[in-house]
Amino acid sequence: SGAMKAEIIEVRNYTVTETTALAEKLDAVKVTADDSFAMAQNSIRAQWDMAAGEASVVHDMKVRIRYNGEDYSAGMVIGAELKGGQVSTLIGFNAQQFAFYNPVKKSMDLFMYMKDGQVFMREAFINQAWLNSVVVTDKMESENYVPGKQGFILDAKANKFEFFDGTTTNGTGITAGGIKVYDNNRLTVIIGDISGY
Fold it and tell me: Where are the domains of the chain?
């Protein structure tokens, strides 16, 4: 019922002078329905200016939908630039959602997902981290944690924190009910609820 259109767009261009060179290529497919369209494009551009001492190369891949006057896009850009005697490189991503899959056992296994500024990961090994705020929904424990003997655990569901040195079972347990301190496997300090002692 609307004005439909489909097209394949190809652009090839290059120019060379005594001090400059430019080469660019664009490939795109586009379908149009009235004032809306869907488009996928891949563009590559390289240029060098000897007089200015500058160069750049960009590879841009993008998909777009224009609907009800709004533009929606996702893409990736890879670039490198020479300016002021320094070279910088960049990889940029643009999308509302990101999903990363690992084809384990011939199935697409989702291991990381990003949406609305949040990152969801199944597992992560982090050498060093600076965190402004942490919300623990289950627990955080040391690799060597053995209940009542060594390591530490912060159990958000049980509202307790334990840490032990692993040698003579010296340690401390903190719960909503109080604090317990162990020395040589003996309970030596109780602060808070002392019922049962």
Answer: 4-95, 139-192
- To the nearest whole percent, how much of the chain has pLDDT over 70? 96
122: left (phi over 0), alpha (psi -120 to 50) or beta: alpha
pLDDT for residue 196: 63
CB atoms under 10 Å from CB of 162, counted, come to 22
In this structure, the dihedral spanned by the alpha carbons of residues 125, 127, 133 and 139, taken in order and rounded to 10 degrees, is 50
Residue of 131 and 178 predicted with greater confidence: 131
Global confidence as pTM? 0.68
How does strand 178-183 pair with strand 107-115?
unpaired
